[in-house]
Amino acid sequence: MAVDLLLGLQWGDEGKGKIVDVLTKNYDIIARFQGGPNAGHTLEFDGIKHVLHTIPSGIFHEKALNIVGNGVVIDPVIFKKELDNLEKFNIDIKSRLLISRKAHLILPTHRLLDAASETSKGKAKIGSTLKGIGPTYMDKTGRNGMRVGDLELDNWKERYRSLANKHQAMINFYDVDIQYDLNELEEEFCTAVDVLKKLTFIDSEEYIHQAQKEGKTILAEGAQGSLLDIDFGTYPFVTSSNTTAAGACTGLGVAPNKIGEVLGIFKAYTTRVGSGPFPTELFDKTGEDMGRIGNEFGATTGRPRRCGWLDLVALKYAVQVNGVTQLMMMKGDVLSGFKTLKVCTSYKYNGEVINHLPFNIESDNVTPVYTELKGWDKDLTKLTSAEELPEELNNYIDFLEKALEVPIKIVSVGPDRTQTIYR
Ligand code: IMP
What we know:
Helices cover 31% and strands 22% of the residues.
């Protein structure tokens, strides 16, 4: 069986968690392939809101197995907190959640290094979630990292010590004022490692290969978004993993010819949290309204998200890089009541009109060129079928489908599982 992929097409926070949860009934296995606790995947059902950071979004379904793949970076401390939050739901975590031995570990000193690096950058900071993501992936590619499987070795504490000592020297090198009590952080880390070690570690690439041979259906769950991809995003204002489709191959050990549908998720407008270019960003009341109505605050850091119109140039780029076969449009309900909607269809870049994402987009070299469409007034949040969608929203969808050349199969009209319209 082919593995389907589900990816965010913008700067993250598109609503991947909700859609994975909605689609899990169609899959035997849900597998996260990159990122770490910088992600905040929000799921809502039965009046309860859940936020997951590392654990795949299929965890609430009894029949689904959840895998944390080798491409993910795990902070045992945050992982333990996620497990604690799940305790009251009586989920048999040991049998439902499997962890790749090859996934890398985020050490307390990785988090400190992240903070030191960001502080040293001053105004040029990335706006990182400060979860230690960058330093952990640096240790992975620098061939210094510690992996989940290392915790099964007798000498893991020695390896930990040697890496943490090195990190401390690096923190000192930054020469910035970072306050911390390493003993306390290490105690918390070791307690969390003991909890992690009670879970099931697997050779996930082999497990997934066998599952495919047995005809099991698998959905690979992406984190962050394509414009935060380390290669194809708005570098250097990106995260440190490949958030795009190829990341699922390396992050799970799935061969490219075994990928099936590529499900691309985007918001009906655009948001971004952290620093970096954002051509369609709004600094006026319209942007404020989007943020307020859409409750646009980071699920991991609580930071307000920057808001703006839909950027079709960037979205087309993401569709191309990922080979998206089906689209899902989120938060359509947030745009109800906006008289006119703008969609950016090209950029004026250094005086020229272009239709692609150039090497360096910056607020002073890119001006969006907009097409205006009529908005709708109808409250969408109670709608249950595509027939009930207002004409103006159908026109908006048609316009996007024509430009992107990919069908929009789901329109989400609210955060709850049930507020999902299939087309
Ligand atoms: P880091 O991955 O925490 O180092 O953050 C790098 C950049 O990616 C920052 O601009 C973050 O705000 C952004 N970022 C990281 N993870 C997410 C996410 O899950 N949603 C949205 N933005 C994210």
